[in-house]
Amino acid sequence: MKQERIDYRMGLLDSPLEVDAREWNALVARQPQPTPFLRHEFLSALTTTNCATGQTGWAPRFVTLVDAQTGALTAAAPLYVKQHSYGEYVFDWAWADAYQRNGLAYYPKLVCAVPFTPVQGTRLIATDEHARSRLAATLVALAEQSDVSSLHVLFPTEYEADTLEALGMMRREGIQFHWINDGYRDFEDFLSTLEQKKRKNIRAERRKVREAGVTFRRVRGEDASDADWRFFNRCYRQTYREHFSSPYLNLEFFRMIGQSMPENLLLVIAEREGRPIASSLIVYQRDAQTGGALYGRYWGAVEHVPCLHFETAYYQPLEFCIEEKLGVFEGGAQGEHKMARGFMPTVTHSAHWLAHPAYSDAVARFLENESNLIHAHFDELREHDPFKKHG
């Protein structure tokens, strides 16, 4: 059956606030792999609180496709004009350096991503595959017609990466570590599936925290007070201070998402002698088919306690994941140490287009070699499976 031709009207928006929130969220809800980070509330909070704006090197240029006849939003992508490569978690600093050494400008560039969020999920938001393909082609055409060095789509789904690759973009792969809920009854049931050494180490880490007199409160977004958010922000900023870097987010951002999407948020607050000493922010989403997912995001502490990081950022969220029957816990970028705690490697994707032919060819060769190394490393990691071996 011949598909009816649909005419689209493209929009290029300077702010997510220019698109109707209900229409955007309705479109997101229809996606095969949505995340809370694609919600209008999250993206608009980044702009409203000046975390992702032109002043911070993240100038929004959201792309929309509207049905020319009905005026309905049929496709959209969170696109930004970038003046640097911070906050992306798919590292292209070497590419930028090669441009600079040869007197070429790598910035500005176009990045389709959720700022500061290395979580794989839908990037080409669309009503159907026809609209999705048109949106992908629109992004590439926009990059070709703009005065930018490149286009980068970060952490799309594997299917979207295939679509973009078919349009001539170069695929890049990476590795993250995710924990899968195999229907565990409780935390001890999960521990029973690990090798003895791993199980013993986790119990020892948790015991050290208990013996230090630390207790925990799990505060759902609906119940979080302003004092809770102010303390979490203090912990968040402390983490960046310890790494001699500047935080991407601010208290106003946390307050805003705490008010607009509390059902997706969980604060884990560690206390000792009646005083809060550490905190982590967890984002989660329920899904009737998959059970939903939990995303480890940020953590920090104002006092040092051995193993407190593991308890606050991993074990408490894992317990919550099991209790709430969430299907997966995505631990964020990097971190092979997570494997000892039951997280397994998974492949992530990104897609890249460079305007300069010679550099595009060089990057293509680099990515081919890098991909071989990634696959070999992935296989090696799988050989160090932390779970019990059976027969």
From TrEMBL:
<keyword id="KW-0808">Transferase</keyword>
<protein>
    <submittedName>
        <fullName>GNAT family N-acetyltransferase</fullName>
    </submittedName>
</protein>
<dbReference type="GO" id="GO:0016740">
    <property type="term" value="F:transferase activity"/>
</dbReference>
<dbReference type="Pfam" id="PF04339">
    <property type="entry name" value="FemAB_like"/>
</dbReference>
<dbReference type="InterPro" id="IPR007434">
    <property type="entry name" value="FemAB-like"/>
</dbReference>
<dbReference type="InterPro" id="IPR016181">
    <property type="entry name" value="Acyl_CoA_acyltransferase"/>
</dbReference>
